[in-house]
Amino acid sequence: MRPPLVPRLLVPRLPFFYGWIVLACICLAGFARQGPAVATLSVFVVPMTDAFGWSRTEMAGAVSLGGVLAAFVSPLIGPVLDRRGARLILCLAVLGTGLATMALSLVQSLLSFYLLFVFARMIWAGPYDLGLYGALNNWFVARRARATSIATLAQMSGLVALPIIAQLAMQDGGWRHGWVAIGTTALAVGFLPVWLFLVRRPEDVGLVPDRITAGAGPTVVEPRFTRAAAMRTQAFWLLSLYTVLVFPVQAGVSLHQAPHLIENGLSPIAAATVISFFSAMSAVASFGVGFLPRRWPLRYVMSLAAVLLGTGTLGLIGVGSIETSYLFAGLFGLGIGGVMTLLPMAWADYFGRESYGAIRGVALSLQVIAQAAGPIASGVLRDASGNYTGSLILFGSLAALAAVAALLARRPHLTP
């Protein structure tokens, strides 16, 4: 792939830090990422199952299978990210997402749906995550928290906008037009900015990360761990344990939250407003993390996020009114927003930029498997007992253990 259209001598002379242009590219690619998100797929479930007679389980299986495949490819992509940078990975990710979702408008069988959606979902779960946060962490150190919160917020805006875009297109031409609209939007928003302007590292254009341009306090000494060295530290395995504990909670509760609320007496419309409030609180937490003082140890904030996650999960057990539903769904949303923003920061702060892709690739494989396990566990317990109480107790317990794991996850020594 040819180099970006960014003159090497021009960048250092710009009146602002070029990292902000990189962050804008990351935000646009993150918006485009949500084409194969569960929220986007949800608007296609009814028209596609009506058209082909598929079961809901058959469609949902494509989501889990895509995540499992991402667990295998992520450790392979990580070293490529470290050598080549995020531009190649994100360009291919946006291109793959756009073309695959557009091609979904042509499916005539469950097999063709699986081939296309599983591919798109694999890109969503693996390459996108590595590319987005790999690029961000290469450019931002002093303002890493704020940059991460902005990037996460941009992804959530895509999660809100793309289902609406699909629904509007479907009103005129059915579900096939909806997939065309999703793919076209992803390509239009995400591809060109990344291809033209994304630069691998600030050092490639004669700059340094933003710790210098921030101008506040002494220069931070960054850790420089290889993947092998990182995996010999206690912090690596404690962060991995935290990941494995929180993501079944995130996926398991999110997917089954609306059915649980309806079973507890809320109307479908009321349950939908609770889900919207949960999403809004996730966005609030994601953005708010960026304004926390960088001197605060991340492990304390990560532990607090897990506590909020567990409190909201356990509180949902006995909800019977719209007010209590808002309260505990809001707490759960705050926890999710914190987790989604803090974990990429923690991996970069603890182990540095040099081998971020290789290190994060291993952890990401654990994350996507944990995400796939949550909905399955919740569904099995629901079918066995007739309610979601058992699964909510399980998920609340996992969140409590995650809070402890976070507290124990101290930064490793700078010299491994």
Describe it.
This protein has about 425 residues and is an all-alpha fold. The chain has helices at about 20-30, 40-50, 55-85, 85-105, 110-125, 125-140, 145-175, 175-195, 210-215, 225-230, 235-265, 270-290, 300-315, 320-350, 355-385, 390-410.
Write out key terms for the chains shown.
Growth Hormone, Chain: A; globular; 2 domains; 416 residues; mainly alpha; 76% helix; 16 helices; 0% strand
| Helical amount | over 70%
Structural class, by secondary structure, is mainly alpha
Mean pLDDT: 87
State the order of secondary-structure elements, H for helix, E for strand: HHHHHHHHHHHHHHHH
CATH superfamily of the largest domain: MFS general substrate transporter like domains
Distance between the termini: 35 Å
Which CATH top level class of the largest domain fits?
Mainly Alpha
Oligomer: single chain
β-strand amount = under 5%
How many β-strand runs?
0
Q: Shape from CA axes?
A: globular
Uncertain stretches of 5 or more adjacent residues: 213-218
Largest sheet: none
Write down the domain tally.
2
Spatial extent as radius of gyration: 21 Å
Under the CATH scheme, which architecture of the largest domain would be assigned? Answer: Up-down Bundle
CATH topology of the largest domain: Growth Hormone, Chain: A
Q: Please count the helical segments.
A: 16
GO molecular function: transmembrane transporter activity
Protein name: MFS transporter
Keywords: Membrane, Transmembrane, Transmembrane helix
InterPro entries: MFS (IPR011701), MFS_dom (IPR020846), MFS_trans_sf (IPR036259), Proton-linked_MCT (IPR050327)
